[in-house]
Write a structure and sequence with these properties.
The structure holds three protein chains of three kinds. Chain A is of the alpha+beta class. Chain A has one helix spanning about 45-70, and strands spanning about 1-5, 10-15, 15-20, 35, 40-45. Chain A is about 35% helix and about 35% strand. The chains are: A alpha+beta, B alpha+beta, C alpha/beta.
């Protein structure tokens, strides 16, 4: 989650705020999720892909449970 | 540090009281005696200052050794040029902390050294208390529970934030506090207590494990951590199990008493987030080992801290 | 979010891994390139679980502090100890690497000079701006994850007209050493776990040669424990189907084309050159140097210094090079745990937070 201020932003992680440089990404908006490395945002988080991965993980756990109970 | 103590201190002053190496020594006649010096940098931080630390640190060493703290000595070494306002603030903190902990400052000393020969102010406090119980490691048995009285690492984080080195803002206050509210627990069959200071929970539990013919297993997911500590530990790659606190204790109690002790702790403002985090084991690992079951279900051995994570934290 | 670490999911993934590995009929050895992957695997106790499932993970050369030759450090130490009014800025681990001239941390600075540990390249610029009467030397080490920020910093230095700022670049590219390791044929590797964050910058294209030329599968993997397990699953799938490729198992953050803006910034400021790596020797087109237009910010040019690392190694007996090539596991090094310990490191693998030896020491002691 980033809150903007010029080319420098403030990102929030679990309630702690960190200064972050946004020059490596285009058009970061407030509310975007970013990966930060050495004080720079290097990538945005793609929500749709994240959801897909989470579903996949949950599916795997569910399938495994079915298998062990059958 | 342990190496230093065993190689240089103990052999030079060998006597049966010192060699027990408790946080506070039990003297013949029913008194316990302890001392500590405080060189924290910076001297003021969110949630406290070097004054509050100097009282609570010594009080807590007495409490976890089974003694009711009563009297404190206060020695100040002040660098010439320390602002009067700062000194007054610190003295006021000491006074407040002493009242809160129920102890009296009964003797002391002040020295002023030339500019550059000390860093603002160093404090030494010694404490005397009346023994009400003795830690009893002989009675430890598999299944005994380990309880922590609150979230870990907040003091360390407060210091880091006050040093302003990392460019983050965290709203966290030091957990610096007196542990006198734990004294009644000695009447509830508690086997052992330690305050979680330098080296963090992992180091003090390693030291406990070394004294036992069993292993200790703790569960990562049960360890209380506040969001700021979680966030900053992840950013900086620091393991919160090694972060110092100044007002949290680890308690070892029989399984039959754990729920009752937990209820007591959670009813107190300083113990709201107390949790049972592990137990003594005789079926996993070897005697003397401290094991962590990670969030992902893996098992890992924990070692005591060998290098300084953060200097001048207390 | 918890799903990335949840035990239930991890166990399910490990069960899948075991099944697939058994279907292959032999033990599997994968190289995980990035120090942060090594750390996660150890820290979450995954290593023993994976070994039980027949998957052996080998640490690779993805530790910038570990692969930077001593010559770089020695140049910086000389500058710090001999030049007054000099501020050396660098990342924490770099200061503790032991060399023939000691470490940066223990070096005694010249009058009014100092060492400053920074966490972001941008801080070096602030230092230069706040200390106009000092020379600020930024010893910048890193892979493609960090290089764009270093490039940005140099560009900013120009934009701000700073005359007291220079960079000693210890910038390394991840794909070339992988080629070198495969071409040497020293270690048998069945598959790779590619670094997640380097890949946000370079995308998946630079690894394709591993799948196409060497026919070895790989997956770009994230850093949470379950991300790593997903990556391993993907590599095993590729092995079972005999279809090696560069799978992206960190899609929420990595795209096939990487980060074009970051790549453009890198290309603007740096040019690729041959570079000498600790342990791996000279690797063609594997390092970066400042382009001619930016030579005013190059520490080597500014102070007329020569940097030519070679095979000579200062610590006799140090085997970091072999660890970085995957030939030796940390406990197999005769110095490990004895002469070389975290409090008294003999080589950089025991210094860096991403060093295989330090990670093994801190997190890998086997419980019984």
């Amino acid at each position: 989650m980033a809150i903007e201020d010029g080319n420098l932003g403030k990102a929030d992680y679990l309630g702690t705020r960190v200064k972050v440089n946004l020059s490596l990404l285009d058009e970061v908006k407030v509310g975007d999720l970013v990966i930060i490395h050495a004080g720079f945002a290097i990538s945005r988080l793609d929500e749709a892909e994240a959801q897909e991965t989470l579903s996949l993980l949950r599916e795997i756990a569910a399938a495994s449970k079915d298998e062990s109970s059958s | 540090m342990r190496d230093f103590i065993s190689r240089y201190i103990v052999p030079n002053f060998n006597n049966s009281i010192l060699s027990e190496l408790l946080d506070a020594s039990h003297l013949p006649g029913g008194l316990a005696f302890t001392t500590d010096s405080y060189v924290v940098d910076p001297i003021f931080f969110p949630g406290g200052d070097i004054g509050t630390l100097s009282v609570n640190g010594t009080v807590n060493d007495l409490v976890v050794s089974g003694a009711r703290p009563e009297f404190i000595s206060l020695a100040l070494i002040i660098e010439e040029g320390l602002a009067w306002d700062d000194l007054e603030r610190i003295l006021a903190s000491i006074s407040r902390a002493a009242t809160e902990a129920g102890v009296k400052i009964v003797t002391g000393d002040t020295k002023v050294v030339r500019r550059g020969q000390a860093d603002k102010i160093y404090i030494n406090t010694s404490g005397v208390g009346r023994i009400i119980a003795r830690p009893n490691l002989e009675a430890v048995a598999p299944g005994d529970n380990l309880i922590v009285t609150g979230p870990l690492g907040e003091h360390s984080l407060a210091i880091l934030t006050a040093r302003g080195e990392f460019g983050f803002e965290a709203s966290v206050k030091s957990d610096c506090a007196p542990l006198t509210f734990l004294l009644p627990l000695w009447q509830r069959e508690v086997r052992w207590m330690r305050d979680i200071t330098r080296g963090g929970l992992a180091t003090i539990l390693c030291e406990l494990a070394e004294k036992l013919p069993y292993s200790i297993l703790i569960e990562e997911k049960k360890i209380p951590l506040s969001p700021p500590v979680q966030a900053v530990s992840e950013f900086l790659g620091i393991d919160p199990l090694y972060l110092a606190c100044e007002g949290r204790a680890a308690i070892l109690a029989p399984a039959s008493r754990s729920e009752e002790i937990l209820a007591y702790l959670q009813a107190h403002p300083l113990g709201r987030e107390a949790a049972i985090i592990g137990q003594i084991e005789d079926r996993i690992g070897r005697a003397g080992e401290l094991l962590l079951r990670t969030k992902t279900g893996g098992l890992r051995l924990l070692e005591p801290l060998t290098t300084e994570l953060l200097p001048r934290i207390c | 979010m918890e799903e990335y670490r949840q035990e239930e999911i991890a166990s399910a993934l490990i069960r899948l891994i075991r099944k697939k590995r058994e279907a292959l009929g032999r033990p599997v050895r994968l190289m995980e390139v990035c120090g942060t992957h090594t750390m996660t695997v150890y820290r979450y106790g995954l290593k023993p679980l994976l070994e039980e499932a027949g998957v052996d993970l080998l640490a690779g050369p993805g530790c910038p502090v570990c692969i930077t030759p001593d010559d770089y450090h020695e140049i910086i130490i000389d500058l710090l100890t001999r030049r007054p009014k000099t501020i050396v800025a660098t990342f924490g681990d770099m200061t503790r690497v032991p060399t023939a001239k000691g470490s940066l941390q223990t070096a005694v600075p010249a009058p009014s000079s100092r060492l400053k540990i920074i966490y972001s390249p941008a801080e070096a610029l602030d230092l230069a701006q706040e200390n106009p009467d000092c020379e600020v030397i930024f010893f910048g080490a890193g892979f493609e994850t960090t290089i764009p920020s270093i490039a940005f910093t140099v560009k900013e230095a120009r934009a701000r007209g700073l005359k007291n700022f220079s960079l000693l670049a210890a910038c390394w590219l991840i794909p070339p050493p992988l080629r070198a390791i495969l071409e040497s044929g020293e270690v048998a590797i069945d598959g790779f776990l590619y670094p997640g964050h380097v890949s946000t910058i370079i995308g998946s294209q630079p690894y394709r040669f591993i799948a196409e030329e060497f026919k070895i599968p790989g997956a770009i993997t994230g850093f949470e424990p379950n991300d790593i397990l997903l990556g391993i699953n993907s590599v095993l799938d590729q092995m079972l189907a005999a279809r090696p490729e560069v799978a992206i198992e960190y899609r929420r953050v990595v795209s096939a084309r990487g980060n074009p803006r970051a790549l453009a910034l890198m290309a603007e400021v740096f040019e690729v050159k041959d570079a000498f790596w600790r342990g791996l020797g000279l690797i063609p087109q594997s390092g970066l140097g400042l382009k001619k237009e930016y030579h005013e910010f190059d520490t080597l040019k500014r102070f007329s210094l020569d940097l030519s690392p070679s095979e000579k190694s200062f610590n006799p007996g140090c085997r970091c090079g072999q660890v970085l090539r995957g030939l030796l596991r940390p406990p197999e090094c005769p110095l490990y745990g004895r002469l070389c310990r975290p409090e008294s490191p003999y080589g950089p693998c025991m210094v860096s937070y991403e060093g295989a030896c330090l990670i093994h020491f801190k997190y890998g002691q086997r419980w019984s």
